[in-house]
Amino acid sequence: MTTPAPRPGVTPRKHTALPKAQVLVEALPWLTRHHGKTVVIKFGGNAMVDDALKAAFAQDVVFLRHAGLRPVVVHGGGPQISAQLDRHGLVSEFKAGLRVTTPEAMDVVRMVLAGQVQRELVGLLNQHGPLAVGLTGEDAHTITAVKHYPRIDGEPVDIGRVGEITAIDTGAIEALLEDGRIPVVSSIARAEDDGHIYNVNADTAAAALAAALGAETLMVLTDVEGLYEDWPNSDDVISRLTATELEKLLPELSSGMAPKMEGCLHAVRNGVHTARVIDGRVQHSILLEIFTDEGIGTMVVPDDTTGPGAAGTAVRTGGVA
């Protein structure tokens, strides 16, 4: 049977799936740019406690892996830790924006991060294939730390088993990535001298790992749209700023946002091409940020955006990200 020739003046039929093809075409330059690159994603905020957001997060990360990127997930577990401490009759106390972690609380932190949050996340990712492998900063000396003494009113304060990162060994993570796996890292560290286990801020851990891995991008999921330009007077989000511009803003940031933005600053000052704070309350926010023209958060870039970092710098077309 021969195929009839199209009749003159007849408009080709519109296919309802055409918008899907257009979306894929829009993603093409971003897929090309990020192919084979390492992306470190800090998992936190509402995305950790909402079932629909958790499922969407897992889909996004697996999509990145199948699209040729090398995702690494770093997580904390603030809400889950607080709930478990309450069950054990232990008080949740914060100083300088960090959880005061007694030896008893550290046992709970370790149990929740490695035994609850990580296992659930690994399970969600592995619904899509045998990809995710969980480890903590203790494993293979991935994260080494010393006791951290934050300063309040100029004086050092003892907040217990809270660690300050001194070294990163990426060997175990690199081996997993080379094997096609998705490492899922709990933000716990071991001290080199006394063998103590320390609770490490997950934003800080993600930034340190991104720098040590030479990642293309650090992505930090949070519960706001990004870095606000003039909060609380305005809800306009800063779409893009340089390391120097961010550094000037740091003293004005809230205690919750400060470690996230300090992590972004550390990352781009240590070889990471872009660092992004994105709204984890939006389903598929990771894909929207990486594979669309406008993005969905605040992007931090190195000061010299004409140098090596420029290759990873997206051009934002919208007024806000």
UniProtKB/TrEMBL annotation:
A GO MF label: acetylglutamate kinase activity
Q: Where is this site: Transition state stabilizer?
A: K42, K260
Entry keyword Ribosomal protein: no
Query: What UniProt keywords are attached to this protein's entry?
Result: Amino-acid biosynthesis, Arginine biosynthesis, ATP-binding, Cytoplasm, Kinase, Nucleotide-binding, Transferase
Q: What class of enzyme is it?
A: transferase
Establish whether keyword Nucleotide-binding is in the entry: yes
Q: Pfam family example for this protein?
A: AA_kinase
- Cite the binding residues for substrate: G77, G78, R99, N199
Q: Where is the Aspartate/glutamate/uridylate kinase domain?
A: 37-279
EC number of the protein: 2.7.2.8
Subcellular localization is given as: Cytoplasm
For this protein, what reaction is catalysed? N-acetyl-L-glutamate + ATP = N-acetyl-L-glutamyl 5-phosphate + ADP
The annotated pathway is: Amino-acid biosynthesis; L-arginine biosynthesis; N(2)-acetyl-L-ornithine from L-glutamate: step 2/4
Which family is it part of?
Belongs to the acetylglutamate kinase family. ArgB subfamily.
Listed HAMAP family: ArgB
The protein's job, in short, is: Catalyzes the ATP-dependent phosphorylation of N-acetyl-L-glutamate.
- Record protein name field: Acetylglutamate kinase
Organism listed in the record: Actinacidiphila acidipaludis
* Gene that encodes it: argB
